[in-house]
């Protein structure tokens, strides 16, 4: 059973919806869907939050075997490194732009490359562990919002050329 299948199994046994679980662990519905479909592997801290929300012992989702835990750590580190390497090559300029804009709004992204995670520091100094996928989602959402606003501007403006 994969980590995602295990999360789904325990969630359904607790008669929780994905949305309810998302609210309990302070993540989006889409992120819970990604965890359950194995698109994203949650960090150990997130797994602990999920297990707390599902009222199960820590380690239950991983199967509580040392071999499985070791494999999880190894595959997670490799996967995070490859994701970061790939995203740095493909989206570095766009991601950097989003991070620079967040900085102008008073937020700060701290990359912990050795540990394979990122920290979002808020204006008040509080910090949250986030995934690279969160930054990519923010970039995509920003792009969609800008395209929407541009279409509104174009609709209300007078065309003067081609």
Automatic annotation (TrEMBL):
SUPFAM superfamilies: lambda repressor-like DNA-binding domains
Entries under PROSITE patterns matching the protein: HTH_CROC1 (PS50943)
The keyword DNA-binding is annotated on this UniProt entry: yes
Residue ranges of domain HTH cro/C1-type in the record: 7-61
Pfam families: HTH_3 (PF01381)
Keywords per UniProt: DNA-binding
GO MF, one example: DNA binding
Protein name per Swiss-Prot or TrEMBL: Predicted transcriptional regulator
Organism per entry: Clostridium kluyveri (strain ATCC 8527 / DSM 555 / NBRC 12016 / NCIMB 10680 / K1)
Source organism phylogeny: Bacteria, Bacillati, Bacillota, Clostridia, Eubacteriales
